[in-house]
Amino acid sequence: PGQAAMYAGLQELGVANGEDLKETLTNCTEPLKAIEQFQTENGVLLPSLQSALPFLDLHGTPRLEFHQSVFDELREKLLERVSAIALEGKVEERYKKLEDLLEKSFSLVKMPSIQPVVMCVMKHLPKVPEKKLKLVMADKDLYKACAVEVKRQIWQDNQALFGDEVSPLLKQYILEKENTLFSNEISFLQNFFSPSPKTRRQGEVVQKLTQMIGKNVKLYDMVLQFLRTLFLRTRNVHYCTLRAELLMSLHDLEISEICTVDPCHKFTWCLDACIREKFVDNKRARELQGFLDGVKKGQEQVLGDLSMILCDPFAINTLALSTIRHLQDLVGQDTLPRESPDLLLLLRMLSLGQGGWDMIDSQVFKEPKMEAELITKFLPMLMSFVVDDHTFNVDQKLPSEEKGPIPYPSTIPEAFTKFLQENRIACEIGLYYILHITKQRNKNAFLRLLPALVETFSDLAFSDIFLHLLTGNLTLLADEFALEEFCTSVFDGFFLTACSRKENVHRHVLRLLLHLHHKVAPAKLEALQKALEPTKQSGEAVKELYTQLTEKLELRKPSPAEVTEAPSMELPLPTVPTPAPR
């Protein structure tokens, strides 16, 4: 079959092939003469060459080698010529030439030595004839060998085939995101949100999808449809990130054919700049508001797309961080949240992003209604926590009188816990406030608010993104883990309440302990080791992390000989050699 492929299609063009030679030799009386005649008829028909060939024979160069090198040289010239034709003359003429060439050469498409030429011709044709595309599509090897420019023409009318190509890339993308969230590297400096948007867009999956789409609006729409469907089916917000990254990747390449028809382009571009700065400044806030206010009657469907862009965790992160900053500024200015248009806009965008799934699911395209109590009660409550911290800090600095120092407030208003349980936006902002105080190493405030996280709206406090950020920030309070009381609050009071029912929480606690085990109070560590032991139902990731932790703890255990010796309280002085006299 290999031999047959080598000569595929030659007969149709009236060119003799290996089979013809075999037949000639089978039916002749003088084989040598027959071979000579075959060579003359099918060799390179250049009169000047006939005398030169014997000269090559004297040098021991096989005829095959000679013909092969001539063939390779000609093929290169032909490939260059095809690429040149694709750029010269009038559009209709150049494509007519290429179509004629394709017509003549297509029968040789399965011949390995000629295939690159046929593929090159197809690559340069903006519209390959339907019949040829169908033949390519029907043959696995041909389909694999053809250029992405040709595949685009096949894909745009075959959504299922395009879906098969895109699907593994989307799976890979989600897996990469999850691997980052569960990475064993824990740090408050480097986290999930550290890479800039531009860096993220250089990722393999975004680059491959960008190349597959090219300038083809139909394929772009198909990818967006896949992302919407998957987001609806799984509620996985990483699909929203990919939606924004893909658009901005095409923006980077200045693919105006697509950017100008995506109604979210300018909004996404402006938001992308905010994400880069991790802050929404006043000027950009006005721009973003202009886009939202500019949604005309009859075009409300664009809100579905905008909500998906705003549901991207990188967007939510930026909006939430900006909200916390605004609240702190308002405390300093003695201003209430309802008097700050910038803050209200941030809440409006958070609300649109958080309502993205419901909007796409219900197909009811209108902005979610903002609850007045969020602005009149919840945010002032957060501001009062900021004031509590200021008051406590000032109090610590005052000379203490007979009554002794004022203790840090330990109770939390019931309304705060209720808001975190019932209001999605309040919960998101509340969680970011807790991340903020942890990052400030504010142990008092952290321990005061932590109990409110055990029950939150749709278990947001046990989501991977929050736990990834919290474990990173807790490394700043590493020394506090030596205190049993602190460990009890963090582990028994929070993490362990969900470990048995949520595998991801189990993984995050193990990640944290792998990083901080040497800081944890020994008695507590032993109890945690027992409590965190995987069950039969535990997944591989949990078992693997638990094994790593056990190995680390084994290494720390002192050998029996060391335990019996009385520990020396003084550090031995290193022996320093006496300097030799000069």
Automatic annotation (TrEMBL):
Pfam families: COBRA1. Residues 556-582 are annotated as: Disordered. One of its GO terms (cellular component) is NELF complex. InterPro entries: COBRA1. One of its GO terms (biological process) is negative regulation of transcription elongation by RNA polymerase II. It comes from the Eukaryota. PANTHER family: NEGATIVE ELONGATION FACTOR B, NEGATIVE ELONGATION FACTOR COMPLEX MEMBER B. This is NELFB factor. The lineage of its organism: Eukaryota, Metazoa, Chordata, Craniata, Vertebrata.
